[in-house]
Write a structure and sequence with these properties.
Mean pLDDT is 91; it is low at 173-178. This protein folds into three domains: 2-270, HUPs (Rossmann fold), CATH 3.40.50.620; 290-416, Up-down Bundle (Four Helix Bundle (Hemerythrin (Met), subunit A)); 422-469. The chain is of the alpha/beta class and 470 residues long. It has helices spanning 37-55, 82-90, 94-111, 127-139, 168-171, 219-230, 244-259, 290-295, 300-308, 320-338, 349-363, 369-381, 386-400, 404-416, 422-437, 441-453, and strands at 2-5, 10-13, 21-26, 59-66, 72-74, 78-81, 119-122, 143-146, 149-152, 191-195, 215-216, 234-240, 264-270, 273-275, 278-279, 316-317, 456-461, 464-469. The chain starts with a strand and ends with a strand. Bound molecules: zinc ion. Residues 27, 222, 247, 251 line the site of zinc ion.
């Protein structure tokens, strides 16, 4: 496939280190609160990428960390500790908070048909690895101790800014958002590998280390977890675009300094989900979670469908109106799949191969999911038997993850089930037909209203009147 690589700033042919195999790393959630649907957009698009690679014949190993320590409110090692803040808010221990929100995160993922990764590693389970890597970085002069903390020295690198060509001043950590500057740092972008002088007296999780009792910085976990499960060469690293700097930039700095050679080949970044008043956040406006979507009556897969309709490298605007449009389109799509006959004819393999090739071509071009969705409509319109259509829809849905065949089957089952009160409804429809024949429109309308009150919607066509419960 072709994939835009944030590190080279261009679309490239995807060639993994080992033929046929892909190691894929995803920065997991910081488990101090629920994920909002903007966070989940990244996981959802990464899920499509993983499934597409599998569909395209690769053996994929997907690794995800769970950040349960070390992530401060500002990505630049300042502000409150997110986990401590969450624990205080809910009067629970940090580990209780971590467990609760890890489970909540994967429950949300499941509802959105996001596959559980092959490896899930909480950051607190890897302390010895961090100590090993930090020790080597100190020995080789890439790190220094100041004020009790261990810092990575970014001035030792030939190139630090990998992902952007922005003015360095714009990105300077410490001057962003008016956060306080850490005077222990030799260079403004140096970052903490290990904290011992914590300003949080109530820091719950601490470990012994050669530099004193403390806890790891946020970035070191992803480098170490990736190296443990994917080895020295990682094929693909994913995350939300706001992770590109400083988090991913720092991951590259410390990993390559440690390994002494290039580390990760492809970087995939999913852009923001915005609301009409800007970037979505947990603290601003409505806290948009999967549970909230459900409370409002949306199937979470409607949100998945909504995300698939736009490209991952464009920011996407969320509004209830946009979601409603996606719901209408998704429901129609399911209805069209449900309307396919149980044609026992054999699948037209030649035609199917042609449509599959077109699907791979479309989605394989930098994960063009909206063209992938279009491919579904092309199949529904195609001049092939219904068995072939059904087979192709099931096939494409291995990547798109919209549960189309399951939803369609459920819909058919519901439609076939005997309905309570059907006799009465049929009688009313017959009366209405008589009234219409007699041009008694008032009575016909009154019966329609009566049915509506009973929760029955009727539809007139040339073939007669059909009804559904709404
Ligand atoms: Zn990470």
């Amino acid at each position: 496939m072709k994939l835009y690589n944030s590190a080279s700033h261009k679309k490239e042919e995807f060639v993994p280190h080992e033929p046929g195999k892909v190691t894929m790393y995803t920065c997991g959630p910081t488990v101090y609160h629920f994920a909002h649907i903007g966070n989940l957009r990244s996981y959802l698009m990464e899920d499509v990428l993983e499934k597409f690679l599998r569909y395209d014949g690769y053996d994929v190993k997907r690794i995800m960390n769970i950040t349960d320590v070390g992530h401060l409110a500002s990505d630049a090692d300042t502000g409150e500790d997110k986990m401590v803040k969450g624990a205080k808010r809910e009067r629970k221990s940090v580990m209780e908070i971590a467990k609760f929100y890890t489970d909540a995160f994967f429950a949300d993922c499941k509802k959105l048909n996001i596959k559980y990764p092959d490896v899930v590693q909480p950051a607190t389970g890897m302390i010895d690895d961090y100590i090993k890597v930090i020790t080597k970085l100190l020995d080789t002069g890439y790190a220094y101790v100041a004020g009790g903390n261990v810092y990575f020295d970014t001035s030792k690198l030939e190139k630090y800014y990998v992902f952007n060509d922005h003015d360095e001043e714009d990105l300077a950590v410490g001057v962003r958002e008016g956060v306080e500057e850490d005077t222990n740092k030799r260079n403004k972008n140096d970052f903490v590998l290990w904290f011992t002088k914590s300003k949080f007296e109530d820091q719950a999780l601490k470990w012994d280390s050669p530099w004193g009792v403390g806890y790891p910085g946020w970035h070191i976990e992803c480098s170490c977890i990736s190296m443990k499960y994917a080895g020295e060469y990682l094929d693909l690293h994913c995350g939300g675009i706001d992770n590109a700097f400083p988090h991913h930039t720092n991951e590259i700095a410390q990993s390559e300094a440690y390994l002494g050679h290039p580390w990760c080949k492809y970087w995939m970044h999913v852009h923001h989900l915005n609301t009409n008043d800007g970037k979505m956040s947990k603290s601003k406006g409505e806290f948009l979670t999967v549970s909230l979507l459900e409370e409002k009556g949306y199937d979470p897969l409607v949100y998945r469908f909504f995300c698939l309709q736009s490209h991952y490298r464009k920011s996407l605007v969320f509004s209830w109106e946009n979601l409603d449009n996606a719901k209408v389109a998704y429901d129609k799509l399911v209805a069209r799949v449900a309307a396919l006959s149980d044609d026992p004819a054999p699948v037209d393999q030649e035609a199917a191969a042609k449509y599959k090739a077109a699907f791979i071509e479309a989605v394989g071009n930098d994960l063009n999911t909206s063209l992938g969705v279009t491919a579904l409509y092309d199949v529904l319109k195609a001049d092939v038997n219904d068995a072939t259509k059904r087979s192709l829809i099931g096939s494409f849905d291995q990547v798109l993850g919209l549960s189309l065949l399951e939803k369609a089957a459920a819909q058919r089952e519901k439609a076939a089930a005997p309905v309570e009160g059907a006799e009465e409804i049929e009688a009313l429809i017959a009366q209405r037909l008589e009234a219409k024949k007699a041009k008694d429109w008032a009575t016909a309308d009154a019966i329609r209203d009566q049915l509506k009150e009973m929760g029955v919607e009727i539809k007139d066509s040339k073939e007669g009147t059909t009804w559904t419960r709404v």
